[in-house]
Amino acid sequence: MIWKVIEIHVRRLRHNRVEWLLTFVVPIAFFSVFAWIFTHGVGTTPKVKVALVNAADVQAADVQAGSADDSVPASEAFQRCQQVLDHLAESEGLRVMKGTPPATGLDRKAAETMVRRGVATIAVVIDWEGNRFTADLLNDSSDQVASQVVSALVTQAMMGDAMPSAAAPISAKNNEPPTDTHTRQANPEFSQFVRKVAAESASQSPPDASFTAAPAFAPPQIEVVNILGQGKSNPVISVYAAGIAVMFLLFNASTGGGVLLEERENQTLERLLATQMTMDQLLLGKWFYLTLLGCVQVTVMFLWAQLVFGLDLLGHLDGFAIMTMATAAAAASFGLFLATLCRTRGQLGGLSVIAILTMSALGGSMVPRYVMSESLQRAGLWTFNAWALDGYDKVFWRELPVAELGPQLTVLMAAAFGLLVAARVLAIRWETA
């Protein structure tokens, strides 16, 4: 009898396409998605978007006015800094954003604005002080990898080809305590170079008493300044809340859309259409319900994040409300589209799992998009997870005004309208059946 039970279940599995799909195809599909992400995204460092600033250009006016250190002529200091910036612009690991020198002479304030708006991840401000280079990296600390990559490239550019891997002391302001890790792990080649310069300086005597030796070479100093995240009790919690909320919003919408298939199977749909109710009214009623339910679901998630994890929801209520309504509307249309696309509730379950988890993986709900390759980041733009997360990022992390949400709101509302129209077209078969 035990073997008979096993035989019955094997036959059931063989004839149930949905169960076969969920058992064998879905695990392989998700393994492939995450393997692609980690081998072509996380495994390879994507290009970092940077803005480059030559601070010596600003210093030139001060030197001419006699209010700055004139040990190095302003033109020479500017040229030295520009050589470093040109070297960075040619780096394969960086993508220089438009508006940077030498075309427009970007200043520090404008570069900081680019970082705050998300146009650039880091602004590199290069200057020459006395006898060494200095660099301030105006950093968006939500990307925890970019500052390390850019610090290494800036150090290499400053030290030149003679010592490409020399380390420079790095410290962080606002969010991170200073550290001397890089100092402790100084490059042996750099240490050998400093000892050699010191020995040569000590062994050589000046030709006369009036001779003054040139200042010894000083290693560059790089300082990471986190301009986003200061003052936030838990700065990254909004990213996690948005990612999880959007993913489960899609699951909830697909489950709600599946009610249509249940009504079709138990002939409730036919009785509803036999009354004065039209298919347009039925779909719009379900769409409004799923949209309102999604708004409540996301609001509860963010209220919990505020009460327990210190998220500042009330301070960003206007942007949160607009983004939540647009995201919930798009998710509701997505759920109805999947429901009208499938013929049974089992098909809907299998298709929704594959579609939602794939969109969540590519859109940033599971893996941050900044660690993905550029091709995967572009692929993520075909999901509303990516657009929704970008919108919530602008509201809670960058604290931008509502007017800056235009691109995200446009894409989400266009998706909501387009998928709802597609669901209505697919539902025609139920009216003519």
TrEMBL record:
This is ABC-2 family transporter protein. The chain crosses the membrane at residues 20-38, 237-261, 287-307, 319-341, 348-367, 405-427. InterPro entries: ABC-2_transporter_component (IPR051449), ABC2_TM (IPR013525). It is a multi-pass membrane protein. It is found in: Cell membrane. It comes from the Bacteria. GO terms for molecular function: ABC-type transporter activity. Residues 20-423 form the ABC-2 type transporter transmembrane domain. Keywords: Cell membrane, Membrane, Transmembrane, Transmembrane helix. The lineage of its organism: Bacteria, Pseudomonadati, Planctomycetota, Planctomycetia, Pirellulales. The keyword Transmembrane helix applies. Pfam families: ABC2_membrane_3. The keyword Cell membrane applies. One of its GO terms (cellular component) is plasma membrane.
